[in-house]
Structure formats: structure tokens, C-alpha cells
Amino acid sequence: IGSDESLRRGISGTYSRVFGMEAMLVELRSDGSYVVTVQGCLMSEEEGRGRWLIEDGVLILKSTGDRKPKREHPSRFEIVVVEGDIALKPADETAESRDGEPEERLFRHEKKEANQTLQHNAITGRFSVCDRHSSRG
Prior knowledge:
By secondary structure, the protein is mostly beta strands. The chain is 5% helix and 49% strand. It contains one helix and ten strands; from the N terminus they run H-E-E-E-E-E-E-E-E-E-E. It has one helix spanning 4-10, and strands at 13-19, 22-28, 33-39, 44-55, 58-63, 76-82, 85-90, 107-109, 116-121, 126-131. The strands form two sheets. It has an eight-stranded antiparallel beta barrel with strand order 1-2-3-4-5-6-7-8. Strand 4 (44-55) and strand 5 form a beta hairpin. 14% of the residues are buried.
């Protein structure tokens, strides 16, 4: 996908995965911090926070603080591109927690507009949001 540095510059944002009636969100902030939240029909709870880094193309979440998460959440992710957008594929889930199709296990990048896609510029090493309906020249 790109160098660790270009990934650091382009990966900030919120990624989500839905299982049944719950969604797990991983918010990667541009200052290098992260927050993991679980949302359900009647609640929204913070499950973890800390610092994130990228090593050899792998996103690593390093937990900080005294909070003990109520649920386990992944701490290592392979960074993949699916349908023109970055997605996070948990690299440390146990075999028992890998129920469902492979795409259902991905954390998808949340965007503000449904008709936008993320594109990587090989020259600048940055990702940019582009309208899917724009001409490809």
C-alpha cells in the first residue's frame, strides 16, 4: 500500500465493524491516539484508548490507562485496500472469534459522503478522498 510514513499520514479516521446488534469503532486520531468504542441499540461504551503506530505496514494499538476492557478487541491490524478504500483486518483474533465471512471481520473506513472513495497518490504518498462520479481522464 505504501511506506509506514505514508500510511501514518493517511490512515487517521474512524473504522467500524458490525456484528449482529453491536458495532465496534476504532477511531485513529491524527495526533497518534486512538479510542475503541462499542455501540449497541441502547448503549455506547468506550472499551479502550491509547496510542497507535505503524510498523512494517501493520497498525498496532498500544493500550494506556487503568481501564480494563469489558470485551477483547484486536490490537494488531493488517492494512488492506477494499473497493478503493483502506480497511483494517484484525491480525490477532483467535480462531474461535473468526466466525463469518472474511469481509465481515474487516473494520471499514467511515466516510462523510457515500459517493466518495479514498485514493493513494504514489508521488506524494498521501491518501485523498475523491468523488466516485468524477471523470477519470
